């Protein structure tokens, strides 16, 4: 005897689709502007920043595509829909950020040996406008990044690019006022190092979900012990807890009933406990009488 406690709510990502779409449009437009400005002025810094914005566009586009696909109606072969696409997009964003950080550090090393001549004023004007665009996109994604791992990946990319714009502005000021060309590679290296720890954390979160590990901070053995203490529960076995996508915790398990216990009462108490204590909103719990001889099959 079992019961499935689900929900029909849309994912957090879907609620923030419009801000993501606006951020994507703004970033894509200014990437083209910055690319043209870099070609016209011959500025390697602007071309590099345009390439960095290009990764933002790609990351935002993947996040947007994942949310759009996740909203599609489930078919008979995809019983959980396309929720995991958000996590896959977050993982792809993490890998992309690692590549960008490696590129920035590589370029910084190259420039230490032969720093290019960079025009200060054009560099500063374009970088300031780029910073404004990044701030707008950053604010649009800020709320969604707290709820969706997918949006968090896009948010971190915009944040990294925003810091990149600040770094370019600082470098432009130093180059214009002092002519010291080494400011560019030093700031570039700092940006690359800043990106890495945040990227590591994001990638780790995505991999944890894909490996179907228990949610962070949740001790499965402790949860089993707590459920076993609920009135009417004799034993708990085959309990599994995992995250389907950001904000959607899932559980399955078998609960053996005490003699004379009412199935519905015990089931309601177990489901209420999982939801209130561990935010598990999608649980499938099978209740069994003590006399039922169930052959456990460890997974």
Helix content range of the residues, please?
55-70%
Approximate shape: elongated
By oligomeric state, this entry counts as single chain
CATH topology assignment of the largest domain: Alpha-lytic protease prodomain-like
Quick one: how many beta strands?
A: 4
Name of the CATH first level of the largest domain: Mainly Alpha
Low-confidence stretches: 5-11
Number of helices: 9
Structure class: alpha+beta
Radius of gyration: 25 Å
Beta percentage is 5-15%
Q: Give me the CATH superfamily of the largest domain.
A: Cation efflux protein transmembrane domain
Main pleated-sheet profile: 4 strands, mixed
What's the average pLDDT? 79
- Supply the CATH architecture of the largest domain: Up-down Bundle
Strand arrangement within the widest β-sheet reads 1-4-3-2
- Give the end-to-end Cα distance, rounded to a whole number of Å: 20 Å
The SSE order reads EHHHHHHHHEEHE
The figure for the number of domains is 2
């Amino acid at each position: 005897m079992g019961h499935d406690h689900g929900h029909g709510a849309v994912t957090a990502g879907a609620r923030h689709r419009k801000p993501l779409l606006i951020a994507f449009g703004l970033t894509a437009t200014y990437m083209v502007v910055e690319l043209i400005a870099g070609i016209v002025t011959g500025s390697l810094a602007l071309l590099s920043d345009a390439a960095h914005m290009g990764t933002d566009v790609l990351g935002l586009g993947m996040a947007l595509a994942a949310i759009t696909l996740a909203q599609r109606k489930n078919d008979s072969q995809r019983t959980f829909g396309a929720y995991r696409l958000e996590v896959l997009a977050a993982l792809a964003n993490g890998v992309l950020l690692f590549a960008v950080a490696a590129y920035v550090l590589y370029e910084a090393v190259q420039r230490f040996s032969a720093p290019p001549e960079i025009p200060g004023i054009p560099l500063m004007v374009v970088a300031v406008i780029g910073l404004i665009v990044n701030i707008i996109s950053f604010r649009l994604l800020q709320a969604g990044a707290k709820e969706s791992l997918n949006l968090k990946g896009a948010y971190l990319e915009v944040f990294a690019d925003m810091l990149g714009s600040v770094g370019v502005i600082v470098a432009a000021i130093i180059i214009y006022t002092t002519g010291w060309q080494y400011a560019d590679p030093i700031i570039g290296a700092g940006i690359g190092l800043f990106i890495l720890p945040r990227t590591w954390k994001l990638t780790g979160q995505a991999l944890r979900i894909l490996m179907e590990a228990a949610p962070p901070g949740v001790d499965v053995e402790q949860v089993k012990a707590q459920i076993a203490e609920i009135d009417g529960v004799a034993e708990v076995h085959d309990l599994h807890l995992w995250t389907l996508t950001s904000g959607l915790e899932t559980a399955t398990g078998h609960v053996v009933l005490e003699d004379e216990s009412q199935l519905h009462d015990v089931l309601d108490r177990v489901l209420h406990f999982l939801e209130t204590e561990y935010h598990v909103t999608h649980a499938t719990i099978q209740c069994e009488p003590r006399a039922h001889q169930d052959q456990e099959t460890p997974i």
